[in-house]
Amino acid sequence: MARYIGPVCRLCRREAMKLFLKGERCYTEKCAIEKRNFPPGQHGKARKAKLAGYGLQLREKQKVKRIYGVLEDQFRRYFESAERTRGITGVTLQLLERRLDNVVYRLGLATSRPQARQLVRHGHFLVNGKKVDIPSYSVREGDVVSVLGRSQKNPTIEHAMEEVKGRGIPEWLSFDPSSVTGRVVSVPTREQINLPVQEQLIVELYSK
Q1: Pairing mode, strands 144-147 and 130-131
Q2: Cβ(13)–Cβ(21) under 8 Å?
Q3: What is the spatial order of strands in the sheet that 144-147 belongs to?
Q4: Pairwise CA distance, residues 162 & 67, whole Å
């Protein structure tokens, strides 16, 4: 699956908000938003026009794509899948939240979603006792996500668990630090997804 491999700090600057793509760096003064809170590029400081209509809708879609690390075709498939479900508002986010790489991140086993994606691709995690190395794998209610035996002492995972101790676990997940195991307690609701996103703008964009 294709993925964005360019500089990520410029993505945060383009969306004018922290997308938390660089792990613990995003919580320090080294964060690009803290140092240069204006759009990237030669004329970034001069971009002061207020967005409206299509511009707002596009920026909202780009923001969600960049948070979860998916490209246009993949994001559209998520949207089309959500469109077939009743109550479309919020369903796309729920599908994205159920991605295995996002669940690993939410459980505190990685400091960022890109790092979680890499760890999943390298085969460090089990779902219901079976190794899964597909970041887009969609977990279900009752699924158990655990770390492969030999990977429990992986320095990256140990460091991540130490770094994100105070971040907390979403209500729809549970985590047992002693066995390094997480469980999907329920399918996430929109209220449990703490992201500043207006899904209706994305719906309007794709409805054109």
Answers
A1: unpaired
A2: no
A3: 130-131, 125-127, 144-147, 181-184, 173-176
A4: 23
pLDDT at position 150 over 90: no
pTM confidence score? 0.81
Out of 16-25, 81-90, 105-114, the most confident range is 105-114
Write the burial class of residue 159 (CB in 10 Å: 0-12 exposed, 13-18 middle, 19+ buried).
middle
Over the stretch 196-208, which tens digit does the pLDDT of each residue have?
888 888 888 887 7
User: What does each C-alpha distance from 70 to 52, 76, 145, 160, 183 come to in angstroms?
Assistant: 25, 10, 22, 22, 24
Q: Are 202 and 79 in contact (CB under 8 A)?
A: yes
Closest CA relative to residue 181, chosen from 142, 145, 135: 145
User: CA-based angle 4:46:72, to the nearest 5?
Assistant: 25
Amino acid at 179: S
The string over 78-111, giving b where at least 16 C-beta atoms fall within 10 Å of a residue's C-beta and e elsewhere, is bbeebeeeeebebbbbbbbbbbbbbbbbbbbbbb
**How far apart are the C-alpha atoms of 47 and 55, rounded to whole Å?**
13
The pair of three-digit structure tokens given for residue 188, joined into one six-digit string = 């996430």
Chain centroid, CA 30 distance in Å: 21
63, 67, 74: which is closest to 1 by C-alpha?
A: 74
User: Quick check: 71 and 4 in contact, CB under 8 A?
Assistant: yes
